[in-house]
Amino acid sequence: MDRNQRDDAYRYGCLPDRAPLAAAYVPMQCSAVPAYEPGEALSRGTLFPGLDLPFMNIVNSNLKSTPMTEMMAIDFVADELELYLDTHSDDAEAFAMYQTFLALQKEARERYVQLYGPVTQTDMLGMRDYAWLNNPWPWDFQPKMEV
Fold this sequence. Notes:
- By secondary structure, this protein is mainly alpha-helical.
- Helices cover 36% and strands 0% of the residues.
- It has helices spanning 38-44, 67-87, 92-116.
- The chain is elongated.
């Protein structure tokens, strides 16, 4: 069976055509699929299962789901896709996925800033007062209990 036809083909890289002998190569990632869901990608430290090589076979546990970790996961996936596209700029499917995550990133940030306050300095643009130090901080946030 050809290596490209295997179910786990994403775990194997591609070498350049006509690669010279006696030269060291790092295989290129051939595809952006499969990909982890954003929360799992953030927890595992990579979007791509083929690049997921845990140190000493220790896997991070999933992070607690909060508005901040949701935003961080979307940011992480956008960053991972950007790095992939740096070397695979002709991958239309990955670029479409990147565009989707950029839109999700913008929406998540706007929603977070509206509910909890600024995350970066640029989030302060257009605010009526200096809200940078207002509490609660994201790690201090306690959801209101319904009675």
